[in-house]
């Protein structure tokens, strides 16, 4: 059973930056380099939204419009870790952030829909406030 653990959240001021990490473990058979990874977030009173996804080979990354040009997703398969660099944070970025994983056949697969993912982390809180 693949396990995902997020870290790096915290309380920051508008304009600050944070880097979230998602460490994967528990692989039996295929390692992280066979999985597409996504980052999601859920703000209070709102549905969980997909904000970024990276293909298993890092050949493709996609972003939601709300974070495009401010957030960058990356991965280090050898370290079994996926990152989300978040710059120019805004109060509306306040949410619990989750990473998710799904085994993917194609090198370029990316997904921003919850239903496409099989494994989920427990989340890390990000609060942006002055």
Brief overview:
This protein has about 130 residues and is mostly beta strands. Helix content is about 0%, strand content about 45%.
Description:
The protein has 130 residues and is mainly beta. Helix content is 0%, strand content 47%. The strands form two sheets. Strands 2, 4, 5, 6, 9, 10 and 11 form a seven-stranded mixed β-sheet that branches.
Rg over CA atoms: 14 Å
What is the residue-averaged pLDDT?
96
pLDDT < 50 runs, ≥5 residues: none
DSSP E strands, number: 11
Query: What percentage of the residues does DSSP assign to strands (E)?
Result: over 45%
Termini, distance in Å?
A: 40 Å
* Annotation field: number of helices: 0
Helix content: under 10%
Break the fold down into its secondary structure elements and pairings:
Blueprint: E1 3-7, E2 10-12, E3 18-25, E4 35-42, E5 49-54, E6 61-63, E7 71-76, E8 81-86, E9 95-103, E10 119-120, E11 124-128
Parallel strand pairs: 2-11
Antiparallel strand pairs: 1-3, 3-8, 4-5, 4-9, 5-6, 7-8, 9-10, 9-11
């Amino acid at each position: 059973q693949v396990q995902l653990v997020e870290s790096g959240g915290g309380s920051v001021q508008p304009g600050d930056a944070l880097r979230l990490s998602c460490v994967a473990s528990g692989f039996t058979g295929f390692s992280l380099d066979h999985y597409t990874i996504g980052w999601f977030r859920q703000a209070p009173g709102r549905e969980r939204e997909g904000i970024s996804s990276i293909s298993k080979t890092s050949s493709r990354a996609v972003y939601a419009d709300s974070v495009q040009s401010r957030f960058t997703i990356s991965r280090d398969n050898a370290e079994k870790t996926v990152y989300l660099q978040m710059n120019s944070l805004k109060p509306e970025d306040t949410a619990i952030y989750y990473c998710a994983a799904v085994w993917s056949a194609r090198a370029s697969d990316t997904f921003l829909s919850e239903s496409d993912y099989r494994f989920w982390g427990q989340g890390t809180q990000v609060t942006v406030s002055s």
